[in-house]
Amino acid sequence: MFNKLIRKPKGSKASSRPGEDETSAAAGAMAMATEGRLTSNITPLSTCNRCGIDHWAKDCPSKQENANHVLPPTNGLEILPALRDVPSSERPFLFRKKLALCSIVHDFSDPFRTPKEKEIKRQTLLELVEYVATVGTAKLNEVLLEDTFKMVTANIFRSLPVPSHDPAPGGDVFDAEEEEPILDPAWPHLQLVYEFLLRYLVHQETDPRVAKRERDYLKTILHRIYGKFMVLRPFIRKAISNIFYRFIFETEKHNGVGEMLEILGSIINGFALPLKEEHKLFLFVEKDFKLADTVIRGLLKYWPLTNSHKEVIMLNELEEVLEITQPAEFQRCMVPLFRQISRSLNSSHFQVAERALMLWNSDHIVSLIAQNRNVILPIIFSALEKNSMSHWNQVVHGLTQNVRKMFQDLDTDLFNECLKTYQDKESKAKALEEQRDAMWKRLEAAAAANTSAAGLIMVT
């Protein structure tokens, strides 16, 4: 994705708003003061970066462009002058050298290892952050942008450490969202790299209230990328969807799902009506209630059969969708929907049965059910009767009685008709079972008679 961000349209300028001049002036003053503190201990470079002669590069006999120079390798500590201390013509090349210095990733597992190099890199990152915030990105050509994202990539794309509190086999699943987060030892550098990237993306519109945590930085940066680069929006939505699928069907563990859901919620709120076809692929019901039928059928298609916890989550999601479903869309899917709800009502897991019965606490859902009671009550009546007579949990038993009474008060004739149908069905089932038992007894008697006639011993 970052490779796609390197090329920036020419002539783009930051939007100006009231009060922006005062903000820029204050930022400039702060940058001058900060750079003065950062570079007070750094010896200015007196040797030309191009030819190695002791003169400033502006007097160098080489007339090649700065962007065409090959950067020397930065293997050790190299003291560089501040960007504001060199002529403007030398700043692009010096900027690249500072990026190369910041591309070196230090080992923070040992706090006593290369402390001077770490401090130099930290001060250099601070200077780059202030430089981008005050000067902006208009003077960064494509070569500098490429080096910029190479530096960012080298720092933030890394293997995350395995948590020391990983669960043992068969133990409880670790939830990273509920644990107190532990800062990466390299956070003094990572924070500045993220701040640099964020200021590059938003230029002079940086939000000073952004949270100083890595996931919050990533969330803000991804949201700004989505807002500024329209061509990347389908790719970002597809990538987020793929991560969700991997989380649901494969790993069941991802540290950034909560932040991605927040981003997706913000994206959905920004959709314009009528929805485009590409937006309907993810089925955003809150924006267009006509998608409710498709969404509900999709939920039923992936309904969990053996995981009670997931079934409770699906019932929660189902209630949210039904809350914004209109009668016309509800009628299209109510038959398969309440067949599944009937099975959930009869679940031996009390939380599943209780959550299914809690659907009747919603006034909107009760209104939809009341309008279509002639279809819905016959589907779920059997489940309600079985719960009221034989469910082991008292809470489920009490909620079932409340739902039965609601239907009885709503339409007594329909309730009595369903009750008679249920009793007839149970009587037929009981008679069929008695007939089956009698047949098995006759078969056993015949088998015993044949065994006795043959002089064999029947094993029971």
From TrEMBL:
<protein>
    <recommendedName>
        <fullName>Serine/threonine protein phosphatase 2A regulatory subunit</fullName>
    </recommendedName>
</protein>
<comment type="similarity">
    <text>Belongs to the phosphatase 2A regulatory subunit.</text>
</comment>
<dbReference type="InterPro" id="IPR016024">
    <property type="entry name" value="ARM-type_fold"/>
</dbReference>
<dbReference type="GO" id="GO:0000159">
    <property type="term" value="C:protein phosphatase type 2A complex"/>
</dbReference>
<dbReference type="InterPro" id="IPR002554">
    <property type="entry name" value="PP2A_B56"/>
</dbReference>
<feature type="compositionally biased region" description="Basic residues">
    <location>
        <begin position="1"/>
        <end position="11"/>
    </location>
</feature>
<dbReference type="GO" id="GO:0007165">
    <property type="term" value="P:signal transduction"/>
</dbReference>
<dbReference type="GO" id="GO:0019888">
    <property type="term" value="F:protein phosphatase regulator activity"/>
</dbReference>
<dbReference type="Pfam" id="PF01603">
    <property type="entry name" value="B56"/>
</dbReference>
<comment type="function">
    <text>The B regulatory subunit might modulate substrate selectivity and catalytic activity, and also might direct the localization of the catalytic enzyme to a particular subcellular compartment.</text>
</comment>
<dbReference type="InterPro" id="IPR011989">
    <property type="entry name" value="ARM-like"/>
</dbReference>
<feature type="region of interest" description="Disordered">
    <location>
        <begin position="1"/>
        <end position="27"/>
    </location>
</feature>
